[in-house]
Write a structure and sequence with these properties.
The protein contains 18 helices and 19 strands. The chain is of the alpha/beta class. The structure holds ligand BES, manganese (II) ion and zinc ion. Ligand BES binds next to helix 14.
Amino acid sequence: MYQSIRIADAKASRSAAVAIGLFDKTKSLPAGYKALDAHLGGALSEAIKRSELSTARGAVTALYPEKGAARAYIVGLGDGERASDAVRIAGAKLVNTAFSAGLDRISVMIAPALAGQKDADSDACAAALGEGVVLGNFEFVTFRGTAGKGGDKNAKKAAALTVDVESKLFKCARQGAIVAESQNLTRTLASTPPNVANPVYLGEFCRKMAREVGLTCEVIDAKKAKRMGMGGLCAVGAGGSTPPVMIVMQWKGRKGQGPRAKGKNNPQSAIRNPQSPILLVGKAVTFDTGGYSLKPSDSQTTMKYDKCGGAAVIGAMHAIAKLKLAQPVTAIIASAENLVDREAYRVQDIIKFYNGVTCEVTNTDAEGRLVLADALSYGCKTFKPRAVIDLATLTGGVVVALGSHMAGAFVNDAKLREHLFDAAEYTGERLWHLPLWEEHRDQMRGHHADLINSSPVREASPIQGAAFLSFFVAKDGDFKKKETVPWAHIDIAGTADRKGDGPLYQRGATGYGVRLLVRAVETWK
Ligand code: BES
Ligand code: MN
Ligand code: ZN
């Protein structure tokens, strides 16, 4: 792992190590690589003739040319399907190859390969290159002690790597690297164990981050949340090792045109971009034991990742501020710890949310929707957002249904759906659309209270979760009217972490959602 990675504009400079990308079925060297090939004494064109050269996605072949550079790498980009995903993987492979070889600088060329690939979006590929090298460099080392593996890895990590990128790809690549740094921040937060990263810790973390990057941050503590009527957050967090928090961060947008609304108590009065904000909401349950509806121990082993929705929103806000995006964005992270305790909430408790809706708790393990209910209704009422996107590790059912390569998306508005799905394809953080009907909403209605948080039948549990949340999104925060705000609920339980090492991510937190959210905000129309 390198300490840092810098993306530089290659211009005419050449480093001691060079890398090129090649798609399958490349019989002769693409024209754009000819000058480099001549510089290397024909090493690239020679290698292409050999049958042992693999152009499979992420395959790296090392050459040691006699002139021009000490090392040249050919990295496979596969068959051209989803080219930017292949480039991202290539970036990740290259950074690890460079690290093993002890390099401090490498120059990467992919444009000549992309030129021959008509479906490849070169901006997306450039961003993916910047992302890949930064994501591939991630390791969670904070808690390594004296007996752990990789002792010398830690020693070596002082080095920095410079990646020289072709001038025309440079800007997007650098931006990709910034987004990926933010995604790695999400991965670090998500990986931080529950005895450290409790709700209060997350609040402190956001305060500090907000100061550093230029966001406003308010941490609503448990006392205030109770006074405000956030019964869901308070119930779930009642048994936690620290009290729950509702974290509110705002990015006021780039184009300054003065305050939108007057009045010092109006949270929008300071908004620089006069449009109403996009609202991002994240579930950050710092550990989910299930509460009294206790999870079996095997199911608890990954539950520090139950804060991944919130962590992704935090990472996205980090990137949004760093990139100084034009749109105003408000983020709400609902954080609580779901433990068993004398103070903990019970099954059959009846709670009341911020918008006055009541709910009988039928399962304390369906806690995510309870903390999100307050976050969504508070957010809709207070900020009157143009659109709402929530991310949550909400249900095991979505993992069963969709696996780990896509998140389940419920979107109630065709324009927002198209927008998000475009962003998903662009960033490789893919989505699959799931339905939500009135019948599903009826399934969540209660007998002694308005709602129940888990229906006695387990069928379609991801939809049940979405249906529950749909009672807490209202246009302009007016819950008496039926009109809903454009809203997307993204269930990331399958994508937030992985059990084994993959081509892009090591085992552990992926930071899924950061690229998707940043792209969605950046391209907002
Ligand atoms: N945090 C879990 C969902 C989860 C499960 C995330 C597996 C990642 C991997 C959530 O709070 C939960 O427990 N959901 C229940 C809901 C049920 C009780 C209605 C579930 O999915 O079983
Ligand atoms: Mn749960
Ligand atoms: Zn949970």
